[in-house]
Amino acid sequence: MSSLKRAASHAIEDFATVIRHCAKSKDLAKGRWIHNQIISDQKEYRENVFLPNFLVQMYGKCSSPNDAKRVFDAIDAKNVFSWAVMITAYTQNGYLQDAKLIFDEMPHGIQCLEHSEGILASPGFFRKVPQHDTISATAMVPAFAARGNDREACALFENMPERNVFSWTALLQGYAENRLLDKAKSYFDKMPAWNLVSWTVLVISYAQCERLEIAQDLFVEMPERSIVTWNALLAAIGHA
Fold first, then answer.
1. ∠158-85-106 over CA atoms, to 5°?
2. Which of 17, 86, 103, 106 is the S-S candidate for 72 at Cβ 3.0 to 4.6 Å?
3. Which of 87, 61, 62 is nearest to 72 (CA)?
4. Which pLDDT tens digits describe the chain residue by residue (240 residues)?
5. Cβ distance 234 to 208 under 8 Å?
6. 52, 71 Cβ separation under 8 angstroms
């Protein structure tokens, strides 16, 4: 991989980490700011479906489904995750008719709308998707893991047609959000390769759970650090 491509990959991972943080903290202002940064940045970031999907999810969690729909409409090559997060953005905010309209537009006529918990929370939804590719499976792994469905998450992860660093990191993220840090760490240790996002997810999770000694040890071991990692660790230490 060329140095230019590596830089682009790291930038995408950094953007994804910040978007996840905005979604979790429901920080709409910061989410819009990072969205503008992506729009103004290099072309490959805007064309990467990975980031728009996370933006749709973030806007939904920040109670801004109209922003989510604008991002969704601009995605040229929508995958299963794109449709799922858009439906979830609507259902989470009570826009059930709009969610049903999106659902009816989905390819393959998937008939499984369980809006009470949101479509990402429904294992039934994913089981009825005709094609389980790496991207869609990676999208669902943290949804299962974060809700404590360990067996579903692990089975889905183990049965992926192929696993990449994003797949591994998705599993870490799901366990970390459910405060299952020992499981997250065990999978982290099994990863064939780590990237900045996987390190950052683990450091932030230990820091937020006030396990600062482990967080600091991991931080020191990181081969490289981003501003997100620095800020998260400093904030945790400041509240200790």
1. 95
2. 86
3. 87
4. 444 344 455 677 778 888 988 988 899 999 999 898 888 765 555 566 888 988 999 999 999 999 999 999 998 888 777 887 887 788 778 776 787 778 667 765 343 333 333 444 444 445 444 444 565 566 667 666 666 677 777 877 887 777 888 788 888 877 887 788 888 898 899 998 888 778 888 888 888 788 888 888 888 888 877 777 777 677 766 655
5. no
6. yes
